[in-house]
Design a protein that fits this description.
Length: 164
């Protein structure tokens, strides 16, 4: 029985050496990393939700071919707490503005612009002083330009004429 014990221990020793050799080879080849570097976790970026501030006056310009979108948005803002005397609706000179956008002039107006964009159902928010000249009261003002993304009519495209 002594011979069988020696044979069994020989097989165990050979198996341990084979496993250690395979493991060592994998470590040397870089297939196994003994001490992996910590992967930096992504820190969540806070999303600004804005502030709903009805003390701002709001100029609404309808830059679509649909009539009445500016009045509808004006009614929406009045129903959400803006005073009727602070919401001004008007058609725009342009009817091909692509995306509804809320414009603000000063950096401190950004949160109010983001809040207004949320109230109207989502819109881009951009800083620009292009519409500042429309503000003749000197009060804090935001400008909403309604774009074709809110339009219910499909813009007409000119039909191609067949070549003769």
């Amino acid at each position: 029985m002594n011979g069988w014990v020696v044979l069994l221990w020989s097989f165990v020793a050979a198996l341990v050496l084979i496993i250690a050799g395979i493991f060592g080879s994998l470590v040397v080849m870089g297939r196994i990393t003994l001490f992996p570097e910590a992967v930096p976790s992504a820190t969540p970026t806070p999303v600004e939700t804005g502030v709903i501030d009805p003390t701002y006056s709001v100029m609404i310009l309808n830059a679509t071919p649909d009539e009445g979108l500016d009045a509808q948005m004006s009614d929406l803002l009045i129903n959400k707490g803006w005073a009727a005397g602070t919401v001004f609706a008007s058609p725009s000179d342009s009817e091909d503005f692509a995306t509804t956008t809320v414009y603000y002039v000063n950096d401190e107006d950004e949160l109010a612009a983001i809040g207004l964009a949320g109230v109207i159902g989502g819109a881009e928010v951009r800083q620009s002083d292009f519409y500042a000249a429309l503000n003749d009261t000197g009060a804090k003002q935001l400008t909403v330009v309604i774009g074709l993304d809110r339009s219910t009519s499909v813009p007409e495209t000119p039909a191609e004429t067949p070549a003769s």
